[in-house]
Amino acid sequence: GVSSLVRVTPSMLKFMNGRKDKETGKMKDAWSAYQGKVYNISPYLPYHPGGEGELRRAAGKDGTKLFMEVHPWVNWENMLGECMVGILVTEEQAPA
Ligand code: HEM
């Protein structure tokens, strides 16, 4: 539900790049922003028709431009609804 959505800042998004965390040694989930909404794309990586590597190019970033360059006709909101984790906000709008 909406109440569980996270306010994601650009720095949080950058951190969630799907790579190994230097401190814990554990793999982080890969998050990407699409038109202001932030998704955990990790569960979808093996299913992306364009390949995992292509989808990973948008990990930890806003992928809207890349996405629109390749396949503007794809309805990611339908496909990734379950994977939505939050909304993109500015650093100033972050919770204290
Ligand atoms: C193909 C979904 C992000 C690159 C596809 C297709 C889908 C899809 C459904 C098949 C499209 C078709 O056959 O008409 C998604 C979703 C994304 C995403 C849900 C976001 C979460 C990206 C990004 C890139 C990318 C960020 C590039 C950096 C590609 C490529 C193909 C593809 C190269 C193959 C196109 C082809 O076969 O001609 N993707 N995609 N995708 N996607 Fe994505």
Classify the beta-strand content into a percent band: 15-25%
The CATH topology name reads Flavocytochrome B2, Chain A, domain 1
How many domains is the backbone divided into?
1
Fourth-level CATH superfamily = Cytochrome b5-like heme/steroid binding domain
Shape: globular
Bound ligands, each once: protoporphyrin IX containing FE
Q: Averaging pLDDT over every residue, what do you get?
A: 93
- Can you tell me the CATH architecture? Roll
Keywords for this structure?
five-stranded mixed sheet, 4 helices, Flavocytochrome B2, Chain A, domain 1, alpha/beta, 96 residues, single chain, binds protoporphyrin IX containing FE
What's the topology here?
Layout: E1 6-8, H1 10-15, E2 31-34, E3 37-40, H2 52-56, E4 61-62, H3 64-70, H4 76-80, E5 84-88
Parallel strand pairs: 1-5, 2-4
Antiparallel strand pairs: 2-3, 3-5
This protein binds protoporphyrin IX containing FE.
Describe the structure.
The protein is globular, with a radius of gyration of 13 Å. The longest helix has 7 residues. It has a 5-stranded mixed sheet with strand order 1-5-3-2-4. A hairpin with a 2-residue loop joins strand 2 and strand 3. The protein has one domain: Roll (Flavocytochrome B2, Chain A, domain 1). It is α/β, with parallel strands linked by helices and 96 residues long. It starts with 5 loop residues before the first strand and ends in an 8-residue tail after the last strand. The chain has 4 helices and 5 strands. Protoporphyrin IX containing FE (HEM) binds next to helix 2, helix 3 and helix 4.
